[in-house]
Batch of 2 targets.
Target 1
Amino acid sequence: MKNNNNPIALSVVGSHKNHEAVERPRGAGATGMAVLDRDYRIIWCNSCAQAHLGFAANGARHRLCGDSQLGAYLAAGDFSKPLQVEMSGGVLLAIELLPFIDSQWLLLSRDVSASAKLEAMRRNFVADTSHELRAPLCVLTGLVETMSELGPDPAREQEYLDLMGEQCKRMRNIVDGLLELSTLEAAPEARVEERINVTSLLSRLRAEAEVLSGGRHRIVLDAQPGFDLLGTERDITSALSNLVANAIRYTQPGGEVRIVWHASSRGAEFIVEDTGVGIDAKHIPLLTERFYRVQKASQGRRGTGGAGLGLAIVKAALTKHQAALEISSEAGKGSRFIARFPAQRVTPSASASSPVSSLAA
Ligand SMILES: Nc1ncnc2c1ncn2[C@@H]1O[C@H](COP(=O)(O)OP(=O)(O)O)[C@@H](O)[C@H]1O
Ligand SMILES: [Mg+2]
C-alpha cells in the first residue's frame, strides 16, 4: 500500500564497526550499500549509503530524510524495478533491493543524476533535430505531391525545382552543422603545437566575405601584423567564417562589415563588427544555443534563414581554444562579436621582424 505521508522509519539495529563521519560518496560511480533486516531496519551500511540516504552511523534510530517514496516502495514490497528518488539538491538516486541471506535485504543506491541529465539532453537533442528537419521535409513533400498532381507544367516546373533545391539545401545545412558541432564537442582541447597563419587566414576570410556580399557591402580588414594563433586551423577558420557570414547576412546592402585582429592586454582579439539589423538585448544570452534564431527560418526573407547552428559552432570552436565570445549589439544599429584568445594561444609570427614580446608574458 502506498502511503507517502507516513514513511517507514528505518532504524539502525547494528552499526558499522567504524563509526566514521558521514562523507560524500567519492566519484559519481560510487555505490551505496546497506544490509537491512526483514523489517527493513539497517544492520550495516557503507559511508556512501549514509551520504546518499542521509542517515548517520551513530547507532541511533533514524528516519531516512526525503524517504516518503522509499517508504512507499518498501511497503509495496515489489522490488522488481529499481526506485528513482529525487533527493535534496537535485540528486537523483536509483535504489534497488535484493534478497540477502537470512531473510535480510541488500539495499543498493546509485547517484544517477549525471546519466539522467545526459538522457534528458539526448531526448531534447532528438526532439529539436527532428523538429528542425520536419519543416523543410514537409515543404518538400508538399511540392512533390503538387507536382505529381498537376502533371507536367513547364511554366512552373523550374520554380518548383528551385523551391525543392532550397529545402534540400536547408536540410543539408542542418545535417552538416550538427556533424561539425558534434565533432567539435567530442574533440579534446586544441593542441598548442599548430601555428595558424592569421594573415593568410584573414585574407581568405575577406575573399569569402566579398563573394558572399556580392559587392553589396563595404568590407574593411584591419589586422595588426606580427602575431599568430596556436590551435586548430580548421576550427578557427570555421568559427571566424561563421561570424563573418552572419555579419554579411544580417547587414543590409550598403552597410559595412569590419574584420579586426589585434593584440589585447591579455592575449589577442578577433572582432567582427557590422552596421546591420542588430539584435535585441533579450536574445543575446541565447544566441549560441543550438538552433536559436531571432527570426525563425520560416518567417525570414527567402535566403536569410540559416540553420541556427552557426554561433553554437563558433562557441564550441572557441571553447576548445580557451577563447571567450563576447557579443554586444543594439537592434537597428549593428553588432559586434569579439573572440578573445588568451596569451598562451598567441605567438609572434614566424616572419615577424619585431616579436610581440608582451604577448608571451
Ligand atoms: N551579425 C549579426 N547581426 C544580427 N543578428 C545576428 C548576427 N549574427 C547572428 N545573429 C542572430 O543570431 C541568430 C543565430 O545565429 P547563427 O547561430 O549563426 O544562426 P543562423 O543560421 O540563423 O545564422 C541568427 O539567426 C540571427 O538572428
Ligand atoms: Mg549563422
Note: Residues 113-150 form the longest helix (38 residues).
Target 2
Amino acid sequence: MLTDTSASPYAQMTSMAPGSCRITGASPLAVLRDRGLRVTIPTMGRIMFDPSVAHAYQNFLVAAGDVPGKHDGPPFMDGDLYKWLEAATVMATETGDEELSGFLAEAAVAIRRAQRPDGYVHTRTIIAQRQGSEARPLERRLDFETYNFGHLMTLACVHHRATGEDAYLQLAIRVAGYLIDVAKEHPELLSDCNICPSHYMGVVELYRTTSDPAFLELAGRLLDLHGGKGYEGSDDNQDVRPVREQRQAVGHSVRANYLYAGMADYALETGDEELVAALTSIWEDLVTRKLYVTGGCGALYDGASPDAAQDHRAPTRVHQAYGRAYQLPNTTAYNESCASLGLIMWAWRMLALTGEARYADEIERVLYNALPAMIGADGKTYFYTNPLRQVRDLPIPLRRAGNPLDSVPPPSQERVRQEYMTACFCCPPNVARFIAELPYYTYSRNDTDLWVHQFVSGRTTTTVGGVPVVVEQETEFPVAGQSIIRVSADAPTRGVVRVRIPGWADQTVVTVDGVAVERIEKGYAVIDQEWRQNTIRVEIPMRTRLTVAHHFLEETTNQVCVLRGPVVYCVESADLPADIGVESLAIPASITWTEEPGTDIFTGHVLLTGTAARLPDQVPADQLYAELNQADPTALDIRLVPYARWGNRGPGEMSVWLQLLR
Ligand SMILES: [Zn+2]
C-alpha cells in the first residue's frame, strides 16, 4: 500500500496489499486511527473543499477556468490537497464513505481540467497566467511546484493500488512527462526548484506502478541535479555537495528527510552503493546526534550551518533546520510535524532496503510520541512545531505554533493547537494521511517472509509461499508488553515470520507454540518453519526507565526523561500545584513509579505517579544569576502523562526533561 517494492531488486520486503491490514482494539494507535476516520479526515475534507475557509480545491476550479476568482493560500497548497486526497483514498476504500468518494471524484476532474496539455499543473502559476501575468513555471523555487508534483504522484500510486482506477494515475504520468521534458531542455530549473523534494519519492513510485523505465531514469537525473552546487548551494537545501557525498543531516528538516527518503527509493531500485553509504552515514548522524527523544527532527527555528566551519565562507543561513551535533534545545525546539513524518518515510525505505529493526524502532518512536502529539484529543486541532518544554512568560518571541508566518505572539502566550492555519496548512493533511495509513506500518512481506514490525491489535491477510495466510495480533501494547500473534494458513506452507525485538527492550522473549525462538537476525526473532495453525507469543518487559542524554547535549545536563516502553512521558501544569513551575521539579534517582490506567483523554494510556522533589526557588525573575539556595528539597507527589497527549488541558507548562536529584 505505502510503497510497492515487490519488484525492486534491492528490497528485502514490500508493503502489505491495499485493504489487507486492520487495526482493532483500544490502544493509543487504534484510538488515533479510529478518531482519524471519524473526525480528522472528514473535518479536514470539508475545510479543503469550502472556499470560505480554504481555497485548496477552489484554486483548481479557478485554474481550470470553471469559476472566476483568484488564487488564495500558499503556493504549496495544491500538495496539501493531494495529501488529504491520499488520506481520503485509503479511508474511502476501507469504509465506502460516499462523501469522501464524491470529493475524490470531483477533485480528479478539477485537477485534470486545470492541468496544461504539457502536464504542468500548479494552480498559482496557471491562475496568474490566466489573469495576464508573465509568470512562468519553475521560475521561483519558493513556488514549491515539484513538492506539489511529488504529492500528486504519491497520491496517484496509492489511489491506483487501492482502487484499480487510473483517474489520478493519468494526471501523475502527465506531470512526470513534463518533468522529463524540462530535465532535457532546462535542467537548471529542476536543480533550483526542488524545495521539500517529495517528487523524488513520487517519480520512483510512479516507476514502480507503471514499470516505465523513463521514470526511474528521471529520478536518477533529478538526484544528480540536486547537489554539488558548492558555495552556490546551501545546507538549508542539502545541495552544497553531490547527494552521494553527503554524510550529515543538515538544513531544513522536511527538505532533508524527503530528500533522504527519495535517495533511499532510488537505491532500492538500483542498489547504488554510494547512495547507500551516504544514507547510512546521514542516518547515524541523525540518530546519534540530532534526533529528539520524541522523534522530533529539526532543532532550530533559524540558524547557521555548518556552525564554526574552518572555512569562513561555508556557513549559510538555515531555517526550520537540523542544528549542529547535540544542539537539541527543548523550549525553542522547532520540530516541524512534517519533518517527523518525513523521518517515518525515510525509515520505512531504509527498513525495506536493509531489513534492520533499528529503522522500525525509529518509526515506533514517532508513532507513539511525535505523531500523536501533533494532533489534539479532539482529532481536529494541530501543532505545526513540537517543543519538548513549554514555560510561562518566556521572553523569546517564538513564532506561533499554529501559524509560523504570523506576527510574533506576546511573550506570555503558550502554544495551543489550531484547527486551521491560514498561512500554512502543510502538516495537518500529512498527519491525516499517516493516520489513514497506520495499519500498513505494522507488517511487511515478500513471497516467503512476513515481518511484524509493530505491536498493534488487528489483522492482516497475505500469502506465504503462495498459500493464503491470515495473521491476527492481540495485544494491549504499550500498556502491556505481551502480544499474541496467531498465524493461520489455508494449507501447510513453509515460510519465515520475523518479529521485531524493540531496541529499547531488554530480555524480550518470543515463543512459537510454546517453544522459545533463539534465532535473532537484524533485530528480528526469526521463525523459519512450516505454518498451519500456529501461535507466536511475544513478551516485552515494559519497565519504566529514567533516561539520560549524552554529556554533549548541554540542554539536558543533569536531567532525566521518563520512558515506559516506547512512550515518552512529560509533566504538565495541570498536574502540579498552581505555584510550581516545571523548573522547580526534580526526580529522585530512586523514585518508585506507580502505574495508573488513564481515563478521559488518557484512556488507553498508562499514567505514572510518584513522589518527586520540589526544589527551593533558585533565581528571582528579574535576575540572571543568584547564590544557590541551600534549603532542602521538599517531597512533592507528581503525575506524569504521555507526551503524546500533552497540551489537551488548556495552556500551561510542560516538560519532558526534568532535573535529576541524587
Ligand atoms: Zn508541515
Note: The longest helix spans residues 28-48.
